[in-house]
Design goal:
By secondary structure, this protein is α/β, with parallel strands linked by helices. Helices cover 31% and strands 21% of the residues. The protein is built from six helices and eight strands. A hairpin with a 4-residue loop joins strand 7 and strand 8. The longest helix is centred in the last third of the chain and has 16 residues.
C-alpha cells in the first residue's frame, strides 16, 4: 500500500475535515505552486487564490459553483470541449471559482493577481464584482482587460439558444 501525497489544496480540502495552519515562520519557506498560489501584495497580509490552470496566458475564467471545486462534471466536459474547439485546454487558461472561500470576491485583487487580458464571467454577474452592467454574451473593454459576460453552462444546457449565442460571441472574443 502506498501513502497518498499531495499539496493540492482542493484535494486536501476534500480529504480532510480539519483546518490546517502553517506557522508564520515556516510559511516563508513554502514554495508557491500553480493551483495554490500566494499573493503578498496587500499590506503584509497574504491572500490566497486557489485556481486551476496557467495564469501566465492572460485568459481567465471566473465562475461561482458552490457545490464543486470548479465545474459540475457535465459542465466540465462542456468546458473542455469548448476550449478544445479553440485549440485551448485547461492547462493554458486559468479558472477560478469564487465560491471557494479562499478566493476573494474582489475584482481589483483578481486583476492584480492574475493580470489577465481576457476574462470570461461564466454565470457570474458583473455587479457582484462591482463592475458595470454587461449584457449577456457581450463584452466590455477596460484599460487592461476585456470582460466577456455569459451564462453558466447549466443555463446553456437548459436553453439551446443561450448556447448558440454564447458560442457565436465567445469564439470571436477569444480569437480577437
Amino acid at each position: 500500500m502506498s501513502h497518498l501525497k499531495t499539496n493540492n489544496p482542493v484535494a486536501l480540502q476534500a480529504l480532510m475535515s480539519e483546518t490546517l495552519f502553517i506557522p508564520k515562520e515556516k510559511a516563508d519557506f513554502v514554495a508557491p505552486r500553480s493551483g495554490n498560489v500566494l499573493d503578498g501584495g496587500t499590506g503584509g497580509e497574504t491572500e490566497e487564490f486557489i485556481y486551476q490552470g496557467d495564469k501566465s496566458t492572460g485568459i481567465l475564467f471566473i465562475l461561482r459553483y458552490p457545490d464543486f471545486p470548479y465545474f459540475s462534471p457535465q459542465a466540465e466536459d462542456a468546458f473542455v470541449k469548448t476550449l478544445g474547439a479553440l485549440n485551448l485546454s485547461f492547462e493554458n487558461v486559468a479558472v477560478v471559482n469564487l465560491a471557494n472561500s479562499h478566493n476573494p470576491n474582489d475584482f481589483k485583487r483578481i486583476m492584480q493577481f492574475f493580470q489577465p487580458t481576457k476574462i470570461t464571467l461564466l454565470g457570474v454577474e458583473p455587479i457582484s464584482l462591482k463592475l458595470p452592467e454587461i449584457a449577456h454574451n457581450s463584452y466590455m473593454k477596460g484599460k487592461v482587460a476585456t470582460v466577456f459576460h455569459t451564462f453558466s453552462f447549466e443555463e446553456m444546457f437548459a436553453d439551446v439558444q443561450k448556447k448558440r449565442l454564447f458560442w457565436n460571441e465567445f469564439k470571436t472574443f477569444v480569437v480577437s
